[in-house]
């Protein structure tokens, strides 16, 4: 197998998963991350079966599950005003039977940590902010903020919604502001009301807003993520903050139990949700995109991290199978991933409107339809997917 010089730009979950799956496939790479140290903000995520099966193959699942929570009740929809249950699924019984794996809730930092542990330390370059890339027919030159430069046979842009690599491949463009912002907060289990301690992934739906909560960190913390209309001063940043009063005010008048949970939270983070339409193409010669750089999506189907890891698994397989023709391998990777991720972008975008209906006839129809739905079975195309079953590339 040829010694490919593979550069991965971005050391988040997608970038590190790429390095991990490449190593598993017998390929080395270097990950360039602009931060001085790796880390994730205090936030949770839902690991569905399509993500879990890949983490199992990577050999990190057992360690992650020591810090995770196995979800018994999933997609539990509740009405904003009184907490009445509109729909719920018994994931403890159905999920593994249907898809071969359970669903878990995890702290993002825990997922990052177990994946990073599989990546050789000398494969990471921290404090390396990529500011430009020149793409040629047979490789690329990456330049960095400190004046350094490096050459690579393959460049993988895993650098998020504001991707430098994306701008180099497709031309500069700005994401569209969605008009929504997200609040994130953590509540110590000891301070949380009893209803929030259940092993449940719960969504409260209300006019213009919705709020999600579930336990993480082996049940020691309750993760909250809430969505509301955003003002003009809201920024898109994982480090932006809001006041507790601002967060509480968005859910004034909601069920008292939910307001009790919000009251127990620490100072929340707040950031704007940005939107990008699906791309028709994201691979160009020896360079490609991955995760949020290729297909940023609203978090309403809880698939952002899962799709980045799916990308990583498929990309590693394609490069290992066609290492002498990396540009062809990248086309095969994109062909395997583009339609699926575009569909998830679309349905996640549409969910924002449905979750935020004002009280009235349309909301009543939605609530009635939820009681007759089985999201776990209806979304077999999401949870039953195996990202390593990559079809051949026909050229």
Compute the number of strand runs: 18
Structural class of the helices, strands and pairings? alpha/beta
**Largest beta-sheet characterization:** 7 strands, mixed
- How large is the radius of gyration? 21 Å
CATH topology: FAD/NAD(P)-binding domain
Shape: globular
Alpha carbon gap, first and last residue: 23 Å
The number of domains is 1
The low-confidence runs, each spanning 5 or more residues with pLDDT under 50, are none
**Which sequence of strands runs across the widest sheet?**
6-5-14-15-16-13-17
Structure description:
The protein is α/β, with parallel strands linked by helices and 395 residues long. It is 34% helix and 25% strand. The chain has helices at residues 13-24, 49-58, 61-65, 91-99, 108-116, 164-170, 244-250, 256-263, 304-321, 326-355, 361-371, 375-378, 380-383; strands at 6-9, 30-33, 44-47, 69-70, 73-79, 85-90, 104-107, 124-126, 130-135, 140-144, 149-152, 154-157, 176-188, 200-206, 209-216, 221-229, 269-275, 287-289. Strands 6-5-14-15-16-13-17 form a 7-stranded mixed β-sheet. Strands 8-2-1-12-18 form a 5-stranded parallel β-sheet, sandwiched between helices. Strands 3-7-4 form a 3-stranded antiparallel β-sheet. α1 (13-24) links the parallel β1 and β2 (30-33). The longest helix has 30 residues, at 326-355. The mean pLDDT is 93.
